[in-house]
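ok so i was messing around last nite and threw this chain in just to see what happens. nothing serious, just curious
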Amino acid sequence: MSTIRTNTLLAADGSTTTEPSIPALDQRMAKAWVTANGQNAPASILDSYNISSVTDRGVGLYTFNYASSFSNTDYCFVASTMDGGGENDDAGVGCSSGGKTTTGLALFTYHNDGSVALNDADNVHVIVFSN
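result:
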């Protein structure tokens, strides 16, 4: 395994640049991410990048608002939940049609303990990728 250490990165034209502005890397980096506590009333952000706030729209309903809007809604997101129930409890997250906007992402979380129902998750994790 090799290690590269440098104080300055140079673009192809010789100008100095920093990591997010290197075009080849920029498209591979997350444009937004968040870990939120869904149990708080209202939900609260524990840590994030490019997420300005979370809107708690009711039991199991959240909208994550972007600090910098996207140019379109063709972005990709990955989301997961963590629920403090027993080890056989099922929890999940989803996005309804129209839940992806240029300014935010509306998600719902649910719990399945025999019947599926909206549920405030202990934590909601989201990563968003876009050009």
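not much to say yet. Residues 30-129 form one domain.
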